[in-house]
Every structure is written in structure tokens, then in C-alpha cells.
Design brief:
By secondary structure, the chain is of the alpha+beta class. 20% of the residues are buried. A hairpin with a 4-residue loop joins strand 12 and strand 13. Helix content is 18%, strand content 49%. The N terminus is likely disordered. Strands 1-10-11-12-13-14-15-16-4-5-6-7-8-9-17 form a 15-stranded mixed β-sheet. It contains 4 helices and 17 strands.
Amino acid sequence: MKREPGSFLKVSATGLVVFVLGCSSGGAIKHADRIVTPREIREGVERNHQNIRALLGNGRISVESPEIAQSGSFELALRKPDSVLVKLEGPFGLDIGSALVTREEFQFYNSFNNQLVTGPTNAQNLGRIFRLDLEFDDVLNLFTGGIFIPEDRLDPDEFAIEGEEFVMRYHRKGGSRVYWVDPETMLIVRVQFVDGQGRLVLEQRFSKFTTIDGITVPQYVRVTMYRERRMVSIAYSDLALNVPFQLSFRVPENASHIRWQ
């Protein structure tokens, strides 16, 4: 077969482009006859999160650790950017307590001890309430789905396809973070935090996505802390987005009061 002059060069150049796009260090990847960039993924994730202004939900929450293994039901009322109300019930509908958390202050009512605990919203106090190492924005994201932390809102050091998912790796001083993104929803399905020695410290998983009025959220969230051997999972049975509601937090008048610093 006769070739046109320069045709081999054209074919070779095309092949090189496809190879480079298939495994990139922060550039772009060809997937399903389209070019996908890290920026496109990040903007899609952030746009979906920005569309979630309020969330009402209920379901099951489970906690596993060396000390305890418990599960119960919960009701959640979340309003961005500044408030979260969680009510917990144990087996047989037993009321465990409620927590109203804002960016500045929290209130946590322990039904067993008839005790109201208040204090500033900081990582230490949130850890004591939710049994996780969290900042306030982490709490919002835990209930609404995975998002890129501010430090990772740039092009990743590595960008590739592994299995059926996009993978974005960010190498930072003292460790790295890895994000797995589902090509269909273009949302985060898994995040791993790795320390400087390459040991997995924290993993977040998001699955069973549902779309409500054009907004997609996970119905199942699992957070695993490997150093502490602690796992928390949330499974929604009902969800409503961006509907009006009133936050109400009632405490018996005879409850004792404690202040955390």
C-alpha cells in the first residue's frame, strides 16, 4: 500500500499523544473518546458541593474501635456554611443524645447523664463528640460527600486511570493524598491519606450515589482511621436537599452543664 509522504510521522505523533494522555503527571487523560483534565474533575466536584445548601437525612451510624462496637439510628439537619444538628438513637429507640455544631460553638446533650456540654468548635472538641480527627468543614464534607482539600486544588503530581477510576495523587511534605474519582458521576469515591513512611493513616469511602434535583450525593460513607483502629460508617435511608427547615435543640431544664475549652 502506498503511503503519502509524511504519513508515518503523522501516525506516530498521534500514537504518542494517546500514550501521553493515558498516563499523565497532572495533565490530561483520554477516556471514552473524550479528554479529561484534573481541573475539570475538581471543578465538577466543587460545583456539586456548592449546589448542596442544606441536607436533611436519617439512617444508621456504626462505630467500631478497640473499646466499643456500636450502631444506632440518626437524624441529621445540615445547613451550609455554618450549622449541623445530629440526633442519635440506640437500640429499641433509646435516645442517646443530640449535638448542634456551628463554626463558633457547639452544644452536646448526653441523654444518659442528662448533661449538656458546650464549648468552642475546635478540632479537639469535635474529636471528642464525633470520635474522629475533624475540623468543622470536615464534618460538613463527611455528611455530604468527598471533596478536595484546599491544598490539593491544583494539578496533581500524578494523574492516571486505575481499573475503572481516575486516580489523582498529590505528594506533599510529610506524606501524600490520593483521590479516586468515578468516571460516570465525576465525583470522589475514595480518599487516602498516607504518611511520610508510606503508611496508610486515614481512608474515606463514598458509595451508593443518588441524584436529587440534579445534585448527586453518597448514601453510604465510611471513614477508617488505621492508627487508632477506628471506623465510622454512615448509611442514609432517606435524604432531602435544599428544603427549608428549622433547627431545634431542646434540653431538659434540670440538665447539668459542663463547659469544654
